[in-house]
Amino acid sequence: MSNITAPIYRHLDEGPMPTPTILLVEDDGPLRTLTSRALRQSGFNVLTAATGAEMWVTLREGPVSLVVLDIMLPGTSGFDLFRRLRRECDIPVIFISARGSEEDRVLGLELGADDYLAKPFSTRELAARVSAVLRRGGNNPVTTEFNGSETVADGRTPESIHFEGWNLSMARRELRSPTGAMVDLTGAEFDLLATFLAYPQRVLGRERLIELSRSRLGDSSDRSVDVLVSRLRRKLQAEGGESPIVTVRGVGYMFKAEVSRA
């Protein structure tokens, strides 16, 4: 994929926002037609793909604001496609699937998806969720290139946040341990950590965490928050010592470490 250089999505802070382009990856022809028509009627540009291979070709061809990705695709799973996509960029993704079990939803959220919608679904609900995810993306002037490069924030000095020897780069979306090792975070884990760092030494309830963290937490259940907190804790404990995230029984969580910005 190293030859892919077209930017996937762009947020502009001046002038009218361009119409978002949605890439719908769905192998069911009639459902793909129905869903794409409904999204267009809701004001989106829509591109479609029936397979993972078609998805990669479409992503090379031009900017895409968000991907609606079916999990059960021929030849490969949407989960595998998502993992590969996340290695390249942080484009928002909404999973759709006939597999609506809690286990599948939690797996999708653990991987870092922005939302998960079980089939059969209302096309109006899908359009509303697409709009919500795009709104939560914010209005920062960011250009992401699908070429294996890091995310860069045009014209801005990278901001770093430090705690107990750890360093979180907001511009690069990177976390480094006190020894300098890179720690791999999903999009959901990064957003959750950034939220904790923005409100250090304050108790945050689960609903507040969902509200504040760009809500990659999907269907906003206590279970999804607890799973992400648990995963983030394990990664922060990988080099020994206690996690700075503590549980406040019956209320939520608190990031107890002191935080500084550079």
From TrEMBL:
Residues 158-257 form the OmpR/PhoB-type domain. One of its GO terms (cellular component) is cytosol. Residues 158-257 bind DNA. Pfam families: Response_reg (PF00072), Trans_reg_C (PF00486). Keywords: Cytoplasm, DNA-binding, Phosphoprotein, Transcription, Transcription regulation, Two-component regulatory system. Gene3D superfamilies: 3.40.50.2300, 6.10.250.690, Winged helix-like DNA-binding domain superfamily/Winged helix DNA-binding domain (1.10.10.10). It is found in: Cytoplasm. The modification 4-aspartylphosphate is found at residue 70. Residues 21-134 form the Response regulatory domain. One of its GO terms (biological process) is regulation of DNA-templated transcription. One of its GO terms (molecular function) is phosphorelay response regulator activity. InterPro entries: CheY-like_superfamily, OmpR/PhoB-type_DNA-bd, Sig_transdc_resp-reg_C-effctor, Sig_transdc_resp-reg_receiver, WalR-like, WH-like_DNA-bd_sf. Its main location: cytoplasm. It comes from the Bacteria. The keyword Transcription regulation applies. This is Regulatory protein VirG.
